[in-house]
Fold this sequence. Notes:
The structure holds 2 protein chains of 2 kinds. Chain A has 4 helices and 7 strands. Chain A has a 7-stranded antiparallel beta sheet with strand order 2-1-5-6-7-4-3.
Amino acid sequence: MIPDRVAEVLSGPAIMLAGTRDAALRGAHTTVVGAIVHDDRRTVTFFVPESRAARLLSDLRDNGRVAFGFGSLSHEAYQLKGTYLSSRPTTDADLAQQEAYRTKLVAAFRQVYPEEIARPLALGYAYHPAVAVTFRVDEVFLQTPGPGAGTRMA
Amino acid sequence: MATLPEEIKAAMQGVIPSHVVTCARDGTPNATAISQVYWVDPEHVALSHQFFNKTVRNVRENPRALAWLINPQTFDAWDLEIEFDHAETSGPIFDALDMQIEAIASLVGLKGVFKLKSADIYRVISVTKNVAERIPLPDIVEPGGER
């Protein structure tokens, strides 16, 4: 379901965000700090800081709809749309995943930003304690800026 | 209707991309990064419309959207609830966006990819400065030693 290249970009370094909506179809944004594609290539778990998880979880429990966007610093970007499955507090293994994500991200940011932006942007964002959110991927879209953005890939 | 604080202007310079979440009429959310949210006046912002993408289609059937911005100096992040009002295809806001897009595209090696179709003007419904999102940097030890 999730193409190889999309899984590769998702493994980072990548900027990630989750979009949800409430019963009145009002959108909400949550910054994501790390994610993993499961072996079935149909489910993804992403990590959001507890401090920002309330609205996201409320929306997901209300209607289950999630949009998960991510892109590399070269502007190659994708979006997964799917259905909420579960959430739980992060484990030590998740935390290690998040630490690896942050390490990759700061290295990537240093290629495009001065240190005074790269470091706080990658490492200054709250990430623990966090919630692990798992969803089933129903659709995959190309999101790289250009006329092909929005093309459904799977 | 809300009023944008002056301090949010630093987050609208396009230094760090912003994010926008919209929702289709059928309830499907859409989450994407955009190069910049533009200050129009204290009650309005503009988003560029270069391609007839999902964000553009969504706000024409469900005008509510959420824009997330981050200040590249303080790293304060903001949530703006906004509502699509109208599109402008000429005039000073359109020209300013056109020039900005070309400048950003040149900087990131995408010159000529973006052709502005319209400056989409949104009313600002609410402004929230996010709290409890930042952690102190000195406590972080990176591989290879603390910086």
